[in-house]
Amino acid sequence: MKVIVSRKGQVTIPKPLRDRLGIRPGQVLEVREEGGRLVATKESAEDGVGRVYGILKVRRRTDRLMDSLRGKPDAV
Q1: Helix locations, the chain, DSSP H
Q2: Residues 57-74: pLDDT tens digits?
Q3: What count of other Cβ atoms lies within 10 Å of the Cβ of residue 64?
Q4: At a CB cut-off of 8 Å and minimum separation 6, what does 45 contact?
């Protein structure tokens, strides 16, 4: 497939390639030169914090929870 570079240096990745490679809007690509070729690699979407954010359901105020975790008395 061929693409045209715009005046701003932008290219559009053809839809069949985006679909096949799972490239979605907002996807970050790492671009580098390798042996005279332009190589783009998808940045890992794996985010350790993002995977677990919001799964803990605690019905206590945060300051009391932190006191409890730190072993402070009267933190229940």
Answers
A1: 15-21, 48-52, 62-69
A2: 777 788 888 888 898 877
A3: 14
A4: 27
**pTM of the predicted model, to two decimals?**
0.53
Task: Return the H-helix or E-strand segment holding 33.
Answer: strand 29-34
Most distant CA atoms of the chain, gap in Å: 68
Q: Which residues pair with 48 in a beta bridge?
A: none
Residue 49 is encoded by which pair of tokens? 């914090």
- Rounded CA-CA distance 34/51 in Å is 33
- Which residues have CB under 8 Å from 27's CB, separation 6+? 42, 43, 45
The residue type at 31 = V
